[in-house]
Amino acid sequence: MKRNFLNFKILILAVLSIGLMTSCSSDDVIKTPNPDPIEGSRWITVAAAKMGDNPGDGNGGTLLYAINSEEAKDPTRTVNPFDNGFIVPSNRTARLQASEDGNTIFNISYAGDTGGNYSKYTVKGGQNFLPTGSEISIAQYVGTAPRWIKLFDGDQTGAAVYVSTENEVDANGTYVRTNAKIGVVTLDLVNSSINNFQEHNIPLTPAEEAAGYYFSRIDMPVLNAAGNKLYIGGRLSKVNPATTESDSDYEVLGSKTIVLDYPSLTNPTVITSAVGKGNTNGYRSINAFEYNGSVYQANQSDPNGSHILKIGADNEYDDSYIFNLSDALGVQDAYILAWRPAGNGKAVLAYRHAGSAEGVAGSQGFFALVDLNAKTAQKIDDIPYNPDFYLFQYQGFVVDGTEIYVTQAPVGQDGNIYVIETETGEVTKGAKLKNVRGSHFIGAF
């Protein structure tokens, strides 16, 4: 019996060895990640958005896979979250945030039965994300598809927002204004509890309201340097006062931001830029950052091309700061899709422009290296581009000192992690990203 059992074990080991040798091709070696970041390294979590009905829609769910930063810089590594990743609870593309050290991932599910549920995970490498703490729902405050962000206060607080609108008419049925009611909730990320919730009606100027303008979307809260004001980006829309029907052909007003006292979330005011026009709510990536005592904010849908705007320590727009991305890059109609600065005032920025090719999911995207102090921008040529390189849904950049990590892969095609040294502009080609049909990568965390 002992000899037969030994022979059986040898047979099983042989079969397993053959399976392992044949399961991976020679150029797609997927190594087991280290269980902990090595000294001087940090976790890099790659986020992938699976196709739903159409290529690049990201509605099939979000998957995560983590490697350490040394592995992320290794072009012999292959990261394959679509086959081996952790599925993030979310009906559609998850809205993800990471702790400053990369050891924790925060998520609030977007839409569906679990929409509005907050959860967090300790990163353990590979597909291993350990649930930690308790879950909490914020759906009763801001709905099941909340716009939320992690504030830069040492991973302590998240803030989620919503806006609802209603046309107001007088006794004769004549249009008066459109009221925008906002809700803001702050969330204790450490103890999974609600800190505060406030609602406000946000008026514009009488002339703007009479013309039919109103806040139709808000997003991307950010704290000022003093930590006593919360800035919330906004998008303006307009109705035709004569018919109350939506008006799509109208003058784009100066970019606006809602300002609240913090942490009370009271005393709402609205500030307006004289430099930029259009929206300040961004889309799925953080749109405003505090740097060197001021907040720098991207705008979108500006008829003169996207700007980076500056809000000073006085909580007003600094209209002496003029940084037009189209002019800086030498393109037409530059549109900031996502961006992230390092602590040295240099940033990596995802953008498209009037010359972008139309790909399978939308306009082609590019990366640029930006200097907030010098107000310069230069396309990063060492990253390969493709008409199907789609960055509209891009969410995450990893900042590690002066290095910034990004993901590059056209919709449905393989790509790589790239690391930009913002001081010198040097670009390192890192681990290979294995893609599947119709899907794409939405960043690193």
Question: What do you see in this structure?
Answer:
Keywords: Signal. This is DUF4374 domain-containing protein. Residues 1-26 form the signal peptide. The chain is mostly beta strands. It has a single domain (41-444), classed as Methylamine Dehydrogenase, Chain H (7 Propeller), CATH 2.130.10. Helix content is 10%, strand content 42%. The protein is built from 6 helices and 28 strands. The protein has helices at residues 2-23, 69-72, 81-84, 139-142, 206-210, 325-329, and strands spanning 43-49, 62-68, 78-79, 86-88, 95-98, 104-108, 117-123, 129-137, 147-150, 157-169, 175-188, 193-201, 213-223, 229-238, 254-261, 269-277, 288-291, 294-298, 308-311, 335-341, 346-352, 366-371, 376-379, 398-400, 403-408, 415-421, 427-433, 440-444. The protein has a 5-stranded mixed beta sheet with strand order 3-27-26-25-24, with no helix packed on it. A 4-stranded antiparallel beta sheet has the order 4-2-1-28. Strands 5-6-7-8 form a 4-stranded antiparallel beta sheet, with no helix packed on it. Strand 20 and strand 21 form a beta hairpin.
